[in-house]
Amino acid sequence: MAKTNVFTIIEDLKSGLDDLLEALEPLAKVAARETKRGWKKGSKATRKMVRKNLPKATRQLRALQGQYMTIVRRLSKVQKAQVKKLRKTKGYKQAIRFAARLAK
Q: Cα(84)–Cα(99) distance, rounded to whole angstroms?
């Protein structure tokens, strides 16, 4: 086994890193240019998503759906199947009431 000095190992690592930096420099320039281009004010990447105004009925339905999902999450698979079947036939309100009774 050849003895190597710690300092020679460190020098070898430094030269390897220098070579790597030199090889990646063109890529770094392209990446810097692209990120500057993408972050300009008003670009598509930085715009906020605009929520469309939903009809009142849709908002109410989503609220019921949220309540339903919250209650059903805690039920067993058999209970979930029962509640799901009731929801398909009678709707969310009846299913929420039934699931609340099952959860107790």
A: 9
Give yes or no: residues 32 and 63 share one domain.
no
Query: Which string of DSSP letters, residue by residue, matches 4-71?
Result: --HHHHHHHHHHHHHHHHHHHHHHHHHHHHHHHHHTSTT-TTTPPPPPPPPPHHHHHHHHHHHHHHHH
Residue 47 falls within a domain, yes or no?
A: no
Task: Residue count of the chain, please give it.
Answer: 104
Whole-angstrom distance, CA of residue 36 vs CA of residue 34: 5
Residues 6+ apart with CB under 8 A from 86: 94, 95, 98
Measured distance CA(57)–CA(80) in Å, rounded: 25
Please tell me the total count of domains within the chain. 2
| Phi/psi of residue 27, nearest 5 degrees | -65, -40
| Host domain of residue 83 | 56-103
* Lowest mean pLDDT segment, chosen from 27-31, 32-36, 41-45, 83-87: 41-45
Look at the pTM and tell me if it is higher than 0.90: no
